[in-house]
Structure formats: C-alpha cells, structure tokens
Structure to design on (298 residues):
C-alpha cells in the first residue's frame, strides 16, 4: 500500500526546516500532564485508518516475540500499545518507563490485574541507570525519541541494557508525515499573521526515518528500516479538529498564557476547520497520510 502522490511530495517541500523542541518540564507538566492528547491521537488512528494492518500489527512483527521476553517500553505513555502487545508476552514481563506521572498512572490502571508481570517506572529516557546491564530482551521507543533531551545518551543506555541477541525497535515518522494537516495549519496561521516563531515543524525532525540510521549506527551494528504507511480519512470536520487539537494545534507546547491568548487558538481552529471542510465538500473526506516505520536494531 503506497499513499505517496506528487501533491504530497509538493507539500513536503513547504514544510519548515526548523522544528520545535519540547523541554522536560513542558513534557511532564503540560503536554503529558494527563492522557487527553494521547487518547485523542490513539482513538483517531484506530477509527479513521485505512490500512487494515494496525501499528500494533507492525510492531508485533518487528518485535518477533516468542512469549517469554523481558520488554522495556521507553516512553510507555498510557500503555495503549502495551495492552495490545501483552498477550504476545504471556510468560514474559513488561517494564514501562515514562517521565510523566499522569500517564504512568493511566498505564497502571489500564494494565491492573493482568497476569503478565508489569513494572512502571518514572524517569527520563536518557537515564536508565536503574536497570542492570543486559536486563531486557526487547526495548522499544515508540514515537517518543524526539522528545528525549539527550538522544545519544539514551541510545547508549539502551544498548547497555539490551541482552545479547535482543532487539531495539525505534518507531518514528518521516518529516513529511501528516503533511496535509500541517499544510492546513500553516495556511491558517499565515492568514492570521501569526508570530514567525510558530512556523516550525514537529520535534520528530530530530530523529526521523531519514536521519535515524546515522544516529543509531554509533550504538548498534545491525540496523534495518521497515516502513509502514497509513492514511486517516475524515468525512466530517469535527473529528479531524479533535485530532488536530490533540497535537496541541501543531504549536508544540504553546498554550494560552504564554505569548498567545485563548482567542488565538479559537480562531486558528476555526480557520483550519474551514480549509478542511472545503476539501471534504470537494472530495468527500480529508486525508492525513502517515509515512512511518521502525528501525530494528541489534
């Protein structure tokens, strides 16, 4: 399944080269203070996807589980993915690490009572000192490495805790993933004469499918890229706007009370909605194309 088109390639050339960076305090206290943003993204991906294979299907294939592995999920979030992978680890164990207490509590609640041994640890992904050398057979970092303050230190630590013959799976996007949504976003902001510093890409540009191999090669001898695509199709504007808002309106950690008033986000949402509705009226749906995948490292 290939969703790439000349129009998407054209839109990709309009993406800003500079990108937001989310600091640790914002990640812990604002962006992931609770699970609302994660919930919104996860539910939309399941409800509006067009690829019959889910992201979890892709991940299970890359993890190649026999059922007894010790798995460390770095940046585990609310355990939405761990819950679905857990049946493949009936005799194994799951350790979830996350910097945000709010989402960790959601993970504990979601997985309460399962027979698979689960441990939840609060901490930063670039400090795995609480784990012994070679203590995990599988380590995953799913759409989170771009938030890590020190990516190189994190990868060095992952290599240290990974057992011989184990696998590290780093899942991330291409920089032009979901470019349709960002195009609507930047178009609306230009109409509003928005501050120049808001015209930035997401932090995923820090380590993407395009530049990730070079970063990983310093720590792993065998690296294989396995791609996966999906396209979300929204036939009404309301669900799309909920998905858009779950990305903090594509404005990183910006929020009312900084240099932006509440009215800015209200107008931005309305303008983006108008652009999306126009596409729905013409085509029947608004597409958001995911160019994503995983580096499988050993």
């Amino acid at each position: 399944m290939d969703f790439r088109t000349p129009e998407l390639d054209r839109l990709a050339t309009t993406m800003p080269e500079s990108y937001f960076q989310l600091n640790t305090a914002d990640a812990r206290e604002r962006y992931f203070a609770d699970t609302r943003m994660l919930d919104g993204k996860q539910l939309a991906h399941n409800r509006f996807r067009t690829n019959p294979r889910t992201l979890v299907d892709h991940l299970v294939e890359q993890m190649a589980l026999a059922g007894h592995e010790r798995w460390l999920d770095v940046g585990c979030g609310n355990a939405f993915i761990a819950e679905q992978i857990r049946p493949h680890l009936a005799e194994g164990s799951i350790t979830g690490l996350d910097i945000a207490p709010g989402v960790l509590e959601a993970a504990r609640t979601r997985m309460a009572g399962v027979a698979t041994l689960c441990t939840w640890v609060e901490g930063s992904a670039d400090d795995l000192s609480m784990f012994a050398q070679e203590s995990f057979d599988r380590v995953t970092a799913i759409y989170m490495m771009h938030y890590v303050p020190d990516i190189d230190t994190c990868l060095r630590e992952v290599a240290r805790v990974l057992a011989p013959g184990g696998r590290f799976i780093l899942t991330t996007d291409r920089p032009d993933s979901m470019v349709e949504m960002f195009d609507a976003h930047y178009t609306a902001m230009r109409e509003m004469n928005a501050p120049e510093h808001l015209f930035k890409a997401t932090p995923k540009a820090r380590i993407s499918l395009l530049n990730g191999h070079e970063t990983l090669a310093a720590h792993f001898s065998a690296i294989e890229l396995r791609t996966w695509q999906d396209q979300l199709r929204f036939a009404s504007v309301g669900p799309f706007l909920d998905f858009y808002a779950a990305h903090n309106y594509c404005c990183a950690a910006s929020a009312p009370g900084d240099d932006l008033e509440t009215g800015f986000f209200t107008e931005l949402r309305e303008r983006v909605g108008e652009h999306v509705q126009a596409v729905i009226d013409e085509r029947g749906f608004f597409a958001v194309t995911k160019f994503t995948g995983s580096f499988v490292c050993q």
